[in-house]
Amino acid sequence: MHYFLRLHALSQLFDEQIQRWGGSLVSLGLRLFIGWQFFKAGLIKVSDWSVTLSLFSDEYTVPVLPPEVAAVMGAGGELFFPVLLALGLFSRPAALGLLAVNVMAVISYPQLFQFECPAAINDHFYWGISLLVLVAFGPGKFSLDEFFKAKRT
Fold first, then answer.
1. What's the Rg (C-alpha) of the chain?
2. Whole-angstrom distance, CA of residue 50 vs CA of residue 32
3. At what angle do helices 67-87 and 2-47 cross, to 10 degrees?
4. What percent of the chain clears pLDDT 70, i.e. is strictly above it?
5. Are 65 and 90 a contacting pair, CB within 8 Å?
6. Which pLDDT does position 71 carry in this prediction?
7. With DSSP H G I counted as helix, E B as strand and the rest as coil, what are the percentages for the chain, rounded to 5?
8. Which of 83, 103, 115, 120 is least buried, going by the fewest C-beta atoms within 10 A?
């Protein structure tokens, strides 16, 4: 009987730690995964700028902005916001910035909806939902936002 009481106490301790840290671990994982997806796309864009400008001029139909401005803003957002997200610094604004980049990508490349394999548009959908989760629940305990918040109090 004593063994079962110890096991129950250990189980309760584990449950408390999961409740305390689990959400923060999930948030960290989301921040790193989503940030990496966008950062890779930004690296590809800046690796061959002439191709990027060509894509923004010929393939993507970004509303309102000239293609050159849209290319700079898109690549810049894909390189800047993921770093903030990974560090957990200004996490919610960074997630909103990436959400805007994601939405603009879907709007300006309607061919995503025409591919036989829906993986491309599904990726954008999942990234958008994940970014909304980060906006709603924040970066968690493993972030510079949380570190600076603790320093203020």
1. 20
2. 29
3. 160
4. 86
5. no
6. 96
7. 85, 0, 15
8. 115
> What's the token pair of residue 102?
């994601």
Contact 131, 102 (CB under 8 A): yes
Q: Is residue 28 part of a domain?
A: yes
Nearest to 62 by CA among 123, 106, 122, 118: 106
Confidence of residue 8 (pLDDT cuts 50, 70, 90): low
Token pair 């009481």: residue? 5
| pLDDT recorded at residue 115 | 72
Taking only the tens place, the pLDDT of each residue in 61-107 is 888 899 999 999 999 999 999 999 999 999 999 999 999 999 999 99
- C-alpha 138/C-alpha 31 separation (Å) is 10
- Residue 41: exposed, middle, or buried by beta-carbon count in 10 A (0-12, 13-18, 19+)? middle
Residue 9 lies in a domain: no
Instruction: For residue 148, report the phi and psi dihedrals to the nearest 5 degrees.
Output: -70, -30
Is residue 36 domain-resident? Answer: yes
Whole-number pLDDT of residue 61: 86
Query: Domain total for the chain?
Result: 1
Closest-CA residue to 80 (of 95, 65, 58, 62): 95
Determine, yes or no, domain membership for 17. Answer: no
Residue 84 domain boundaries = 24-152
C-alpha–C-alpha distance, residues 130 and 147, integer Å: 23
